[in-house]
Design goal:
260 residues, alpha+beta, Tetrahydropterin Synthase, Chain A, 3 domains, 3-stranded antiparallel beta sheet, 8 strands
């Protein structure tokens, strides 16, 4: 073997060794895990840190454990009370079992997105419009529970689902506005009636007190005169001064006796 051929073989072996060494060493971050298949068979999950595999024999797949956010596109849905709405949502999920996420589903990210869309249409279609507008938290909890239940066998945990926008037709928006206006008018009338009722009750109580204490009427009359004089110094009030009947009763009896 010539020296040139020997040098070429050594150089080729060196390059091959460097390549095999580079593809057999992986460094996984704290939020990453490695799924390894050795001759097609699943090995225990690796990481974080330094992971060494056997080139050619092993196949290495890197999986992130961080929370992933996907936006569910706007869906055209007819509610249970036959109202056409457009609704979209945001889904937060993470992988808690990397081996299941690789072996049980081909693309867990795409599958989670699709199951979120179908679940959103199904849940909104089974709800009334008033429930969608007033019970948003319950709707989010229902979506989260259903989606999480279906993705759990894939090693995917749904942490939160939030409905973003709920778009209504213009005619329905006008109807809801009229309904809200009528509701406000109803509340205003009820509050006014309750105020009148409370005022009547207080006046009744005041009347009972004045009836039991006649001097209270005189004091109230004098207090009213003071308030009028305070409000307008130019006002002239001409009114008879109420005198208790007990003060003039003796005089009336005397006059009556003389006349007889």
């Amino acid at each position: 073997m010539s020296p040139t051929t020997l040098i070429g073989l050594v150089f080729l072996a060196l390059i091959l060794g460097i390549y095999l060494f580079s593809v057999s060493i992986y460094i996984l971050r704290e939020y990453e895990r490695g799924v390894v298949f050795r001759l097609g068979r699943l090995k225990p999950v690796k990481g974080p840190g330094l992971v060494i595999i056997i080139p050619i024999v092993d196949r290495f797949i890197r999986v992130s454990l961080r929370i992933v956010t996907i936006e569910v596109p706007s869906q055209d849905v007819i509610t249970k009370d036959n109202v056409s709405v457009q609704v979209n949502a945001v889904v937060y999920f993470r992988v808690f079992a990397p081996d299941l996420a690789i072996t049980q589903i081909e693309d867990y990210h795409f599958a989670t997105s699709q199951i979120s869309q179908t679940t959103l249409r199904s849940v909104v279609g089974q709800s009334h419009l008033d429930e969608l507008l007033s019970k948003r938290d319950e709707l989010n909890s229902t979506l989260e529970h259903i989606i999480d239940e279906q993705t759990e066998p894939w090693g995917v945990k749904v942490t939160h689902v939030e409905v973003k926008n709920l778009d209504l037709p213009e005619n329905m928006q006008r109807a809801i506005a009229r309904q809200a206006e009528a509701e406000r008018e109803r509340r205003a009338k009820i509050i006014h009636a309750e105020g009148e009722q409370q005022a009547a009750e207080k006046l009744t109580d005041a009347g009972k007190i004045i009836r039991s204490e006649p001097i209270a009427l005189t004091l109230r009359y004098l207090q009213t005169l003071v308030e009028i004089a305070t409000e307008s110094s130019n006002a002239t009030v001409i009114a008879p001064l109420p005198i208790p009947i007990d003060l003039i009763t003796p005089f009336m009896k005397k006059l009556k006796g003389e006349s007889e």
